[in-house]
Amino acid sequence: MATLDEVIKKSLNPFDNSTAGNFWEEHEAFPSVESIHQKQLIQIKDILGQTAQDHQTRSLILYGDTGSGKTHFLGRVKQELNNQAFFVYVEPFAQSDHIWRHILRHTIDSLVNTPEGQVDSQLIIWLKSCLSSIRQGLKTEQQSFIDKIRNLFGKTDAITDRQLFIDILKKTIGTKGIYNANEFFGVLYSLTNPELYSLACEWLKGDDLDEESLQKLKVKQSIDDEEKARGILSNFSNISGKTQPIVLCFDQLDNISRLPDGSIDLQALFNVNSGIINGKWKGFLIIISIRTSTWYDNSKRIQTADLDRASIRISLKRITLEEGEALLASRLYPLHRQATPKPNSPIYPFLGQVLEKTFLSRRAAPRAILMIGKLLFREYKEWLFRDKQPPSPKWIDGSKPVPPPPPPPPPVIEAEFKLIWQREYQKVQSNFSKISLLPSSDLIRILEEVLTALQIQAIQPKLLSGAYATHSLSYQQPDEKRERIGIVWAEELNMTSFYSVMNACQKVIQQNLCQTLYLIRISTLGKSKNLGYKLYSQIFKGTQHRHIAPKLSSVHYLVTYHNLVNSVLAQELVVANKEISLQELEALVRDTKVLNNCLLLQDLGVCKPSDTIIADEVDLQPVEDYIFNLVTTQGYMGLPALIRETSTQFSFLEKSDIQKLIQKLCQGQKVQIIDPKAKPEEQLICLVTK
User: Which of 131, 391, 593, 683 is deepest in the core (most CB within 10 A)?
Assistant: First the structure.
């Protein structure tokens, strides 16, 4: 058995950070300390219990300083109250005048997720519980019909009596307060048919469906305005009065739509909250999570009556040093478990005194504790590799506070950022299966964020006029010509909508608002007889204007950057033990060239590929980069841990493939195995310093 020092030599730093964000997209379960913010958790549990009992909608403000763990806390709320409610994460909204549609889309996107320990999605569990609640009081034959519906969820068979299903829901739930009852209940019926389930979800979240899809669902039109979106959300509210509550979580609000003076439009969110409260919606718990400074800077702009409707305030305060020690212990426990003999202290090799001398107020933000842990662990590990020779860390005997660390060299900063990028990209890949998961207006806004990071000049939103203005932008081409480039991103399936977009494009060209126009669209272009297709042909065939059919991987690049922007603006992104600003994020993106292999950006001419990739060959360069960056940030580590971590990130690779890449890096004198004659499970690896 290995001593703890031997285990530490081989291990990764257990305090390495992760990006924060949507709790439905987090795959790593970081340990939680139950005592931390337990009072606030119990308070929310009680509020949720009251909502479940009386079905009255409630809203609360959850605020805390930077690093207090708001996003982690929301994930913990979801995890612990998973079986008591349906949880919805709402991404920061880009347009205040589309806020109801934005909330509806993210509500359905969250409801189609499957909670931990369940087989069905939240949406199916919600519908099954609805059917169970209305079964009482029905005639025997109607009860039997409802039971058949519930038993056939997810199977290949389908119940054909759609009208009977609608009639039963109209009779038991009623039509009062139900927006467009016939179509809505009909779409709920389509959820019971595996062949129509996905299409029904697309309609519910507001996708602009084509005529054929609408006919399959037996509905007249898509949810294409704020009134309809608000109506469908209110339907979920009315039915949730018969099931479990729905928890709407708004987080990372520093990246929402902005007012002309540059401040965030928090009033738009509180207008929604007041609309829900005044409308006497049932069964919702609204949680608005916000940084304390952002709240105090912007709450005075909110109308007093709207503030009063969110009167419950919950503060995540800094934690005690005892809780800080428990947090350190939770990260060190997996290493302690492997060691013999067991350490006397749960935070060894740290001493409790080091926290006392570093945090004189005896309180600290959880992130500050973890950042200290990361620094101390790295220092101790480096000391071990010097065979405990001087200089020894001054804090090791508890006599000195942790000194401010010197800024790491740029290679270490860039290596850590690349690791963060790679992990976020992998997360986006696994959760983002098709381009249509985002509306075109969001895609163009995310593209604008990326172009800004790449220092593209004179970006102007809303190149088009009319209803589809938010699908477009223009910028100045980064070459000697300095021509105006226009971009329109339009993925709507409805051909009438496509014609409207093409008509708006034609007006832009006629007015010479840009010299080259790009249409980004992977969706169908329609049939040759369609007016939209004819206009498309006139504009984009045989002219200087271009149509780009984007790859899904390109959108993965864009969404990865967008997620990091959300984290940065919420002051949640830490690189090399430093919270970075948006300007620093943009500089890192340019310096590390992480966007250069995005095919869409290459097609637009704003990026050049970093590497030449042979068609149909697996590109191993990202894997090689990951291995090198991991060793760079860790300093020293065990070879088995490096292989294991790489295999986790790139599950398609065999262990032998990873070993070959490590050998390639050794031959290139980038990394070295310290003790090549040791057994493979005992070998250590480090960076080659020049």
Answer: 131
- The answer to whether 586 and 427 are in contact (CB under 8 A) is no
8 Å CB contact between 647 and 655: yes
Q: Assess whether 458 and 378 both reside in one domain.
A: no
Q: How far is CA 113 from the centre of its chain?
A: 13
3-state secondary structure of 29: coil
Q: Quote the domain boundaries for residue 649.
A: 621-687
Query: Is residue 595 in some structural domain?
Result: no
Residue 498 and residue 507: Cα distance in Å, rounded? Answer: 14
Structure tokens at 181: 């009852």
Q: Looking at the whole model, is its pTM more than 0.85?
A: yes
* 459 and 372 inside one domain: no
For 630-644, the pLDDT digits (tens) are 999 998 899 999 999
Q: Which residues touch 600 (CB under 8 Å, ≥6 apart)?
A: 447, 520, 548, 550, 551, 554, 555, 557, 558
Q: Are residues 370 and 444 in the same domain?
A: no
| Token couple for 430 | 């696994």
Whole-number Cα distances in Å, 528 to 41, 213, 519, 540: 58, 20, 18, 14
Please give the torsion angle defined by the CA atoms of residues 70, 71, 74 and 78, in that order, rounded to the nearest 10 degrees. Answer: -160
The strand pairing partners of 476, in sequence order, are 457, 484
Q: What are the DSSP calls for 571-638, one per residue? A: T--EETTEEPPHHHHHHHHHHHTTTTT-HHHHHTTS---SS---TTS---HHHHHHHHHHHHHHSEEE
The residue out of 549, 573, 608 marking a domain boundary is: 549
Q: Count the domains in the chain.
A: 4
Contacts of 153 (CB under 8 A, 6+ apart): 120, 124, 127, 128, 192
Query: Which letter does DSSP use for residue 517 in this model?
Result: E
Complete DSSP assignment for 70-104: HHHHHHHHHHHTTTTSEEEEEPPPS-GGGHHHHHH
pLDDT of 649 higher than 90: no
Cα–Cα separations (whole angstroms), residue 326 to 33, 187, 196, 607, 641: 7, 49, 49, 46, 25
The angle that helices 410-431 and 621-634 make with each other, rounded to 10 degrees, is 130
pLDDT in tens, 105-147: 999 999 999 888 888 899 988 888 887 777 766 667 677 777 7
